[in-house]
Amino acid sequence: MKYNPDIIKSNRKTVQLELRADGKLVVRAPKRMPYREIEEYVNSNEKWIERALSKHKTLYGEPLPVYTDEELAQITAFAKAIIPQRVEYYANLLGVTYGKISIRHPKTRWGSCSAEGNLSFSCLLSQMPLEVLDSVVVHELCHRKHMNHSKRFYEEILRVMPDYFEREKWLKSNGKRYSGRLP
Ligand SMILES: [Zn+2]
Questions:
Q1: What is the structure's pLDDT at 22?
Q2: Would 131 be classed as within a structural domain?
Q3: 104 and 78 in a common domain
């Protein structure tokens, strides 16, 4: 069958198509529905399927090309222009000091804060929504008050950024699309 869907039969009365988050097509069908009828149903819904698949591609993307050295240099320059401003703004808001800011491109970390207050951020944050960049800035700056991930640490974050966890969730589900482009 075209699209090679997973067919899930159950006690339901109607047949339904669904595109899962992993891009796999699922047909939910009544127990006694013959394979040939399911196939007909899938074929007659080709337009819907094509639209759903293309929307999925837009949302989750096909793997994007790896950054060239030149692109990475541009991204780093942009990050160096924007991140220190955000750090300064939130440091004032939180009432904390900080040391040096470095912009790097590690594969697995978005930011860090040393015991001396030196901050490090991934240049890739500059390619993300500003709300997400800010959430990493606030996270690292709050380590100036609590060098751990305790309840009090998160309370401090939420004080200045009540929707922090939504932003963090975005980063968790989308971050790999960015780090996957590092050479
Ligand atoms: Zn942390």
A1: 67
A2: yes
A3: yes
The string of pLDDT tens digits covering residues 134-168 is: 999 999 999 999 999 999 999 999 999 999 999 99
Q: How far is the CA of 136 from the centre of ligand 1 (A)?
A: 9
Residue 154 lies in a domain: yes
- List, in order, residues 6 or more apart from 69 with CB less than 8 Å away: 183
The rounded Å distance from CA 2 to ligand 1 centre is 47
Rounded CA separation 114/40 (Å): 61
CA of 27 to the centre of ligand 1 (A): 42
Number of domains in the chain: 2
Cα(116) to ligand 1 centroid in Å equals 15
Residue-range definition of the domain harbouring residue 86: 69-179
Give 8 Cα–ligand 1 centroid separation in angstroms. Answer: 42
CA distance 137 to 82: 11
- Cα 143 to ligand 1 centre (Å): 7
Check residue 60 and give its pLDDT. Answer: 72
Question: What's the confidence (pLDDT) of residue 63?
Answer: 60
Q: Sign of the C-alpha dihedral, residues 84, 86, 90, 92? A: positive
Adjacent-strand bridge partners of 180: none
Å from CA of 139 to ligand 1 middle = 6
Q: How far is the CA of 153 from the centre of ligand 1 (A)?
A: 9
pLDDT < 50: residue spans in the chain: none
